From TrEMBL:
InterPro entries per record: Asp/Glu/hydantoin_racemase, Asp/Glu_race, Iso_Racemase_Enz_sf
Entry protein name: Aspartate/glutamate racemase family protein
Record-stated family: Belongs to the HyuE racemase family.
Ranges that cross the membrane: none
Length: 210
């Protein structure tokens, strides 16, 4: 299982974080690689446009090296259709995977991410189940989540979504998996919280060929 990270890092353990979560949850062997020259990941239209050709190129490398399925570990699903057209293995976008799981859990889905609006791929799939979106205070890039105040800012934004009527929360940034905030949100807010990395791993478990 190839895991494409859109946040550039020289730390192998950091790059492997999402793959490790998938291995621990679903027992799927993973290989994680990151695209180059994106130290803040994808956080706006410009950074997404720069990332897209790099994602396709890395997907080709992983598929050529024997990956049986690929995960684009970004809730914006960047270059998802282009990547599917470029390789001959299943390709899963973390955002659409999370939306699919959220649809199975609730009727009013609140989307928590690092942009002011929900990712278009997520919003399109949720349709009329979409309730509202929120961005934690002070968070504009995935790296902002690593600040000491990150988890509390996330909790505050998530609580606002639940107060507005959301019965399910969708984490629309894979960096929220990195900081491990899902158990805190479920414990404090008592609603299901969909982690996009784990949702992508769930779908990958169906696509995987032993």
């Amino acid at each position: 299982m190839g895991v494409i990270r859109v946040l550039t890092s020289e730390d192998p353990a950091a790059v492997a974080t999402h793959g490790t979560a998938i291995e621990e949850r679903y027992g799927l062997p993973t290989v994680s690689r990151c695209i180059p020259d994106q130290p803040y990941g994808i956080h706006d239209d410009e950074s997404e446009a720069r990332a897209e050709p790099k994602i396709v190129a890395l997907a080709r490398e992983l598929a050529d090296a024997g990956a049986r399925a690929l995960i684009i570990s970004c809730a914006a699903d960047p270059a998802l259709q282009e990547t599917r057209a470029a390789v001959g293995v299943p390709v899963i976008g973390a955002g659409s995977a999370a939306a699919a799981v959220a649809l199975g859990l609730g009727r009013r889905v609140g989307v928590l991410g690092i942009r002011d609006e929900a990712p278009p791929a997520v919003r399109a799939l949720l349709g009329d189940r979409f309730t509202a979106s929120a961005r934690p205070h002070g968070v504009h890039r995935t790296t902002d989540l690593l600040a000491a105040e990150g988890p509390e800012a996330v909790l505050e934004a998530a609580a606002g979504l639940v107060a507005s009527g959301a019965d399910t929360l969708l984490l629309a940034c894979t960096g929220l998996n990195t900081i491990g905030v899902r158990p805190l949100l479920e414990r404090r807010l008592a609603v299901p919280v969909v982690d996009p990395v784990l949702a992508a791993g769930l779908l990958a478990s169906y696509a995987h060929r032993a």
